[in-house]
Amino acid sequence: MAVTGDETDEETELAPSHMAAATGDMPTYQIRAPTTALPQGVVMAASPGSLHSPQQLAEEATRKRELRLMKNREAAKECRRRKKEYVKCLESRVAVLEVQNKKLIEELETLKDICSPKTD
DNA sequence: GAGTCGAGTCGTCAGGATCG
DNA sequence: CGATCCTGACGACTCGACTC
Question: pTM score, two decimals?
């Protein structure tokens, strides 16, 4: 499958935050970062003071919409990246806990053997 | 090879959360 | 309170596996 190579292995603390609100489930893996950086190639629109004709207003509206779509596109990508990372994090935690659980069960069996009265 | 299916990805919209 | 951010949901698209 031709997939975008956006895998990262950075160790980020994924802090569940607000929003157990609506449907409750799905904890969020949201990291509020100061992302004021615009996607490459984005040029800020002309200052609002310089608008005149309806055509210019329409162009401004179009520019705003395109900028919003572009930002949202990037936001969606980032959101999906974080979600993948969160899931990966959960999966590795599951793996660790499974090993831990297995060890505890083994330990329990050993202790049972030691403590159980011999019936010979 | 053509058709179908399931899984994955992407862009967009809607609406709640947050910020200034 | 308007602007912006974040994310679930949806539809469109692609790709590989499978069947005929």
Answer: 0.67
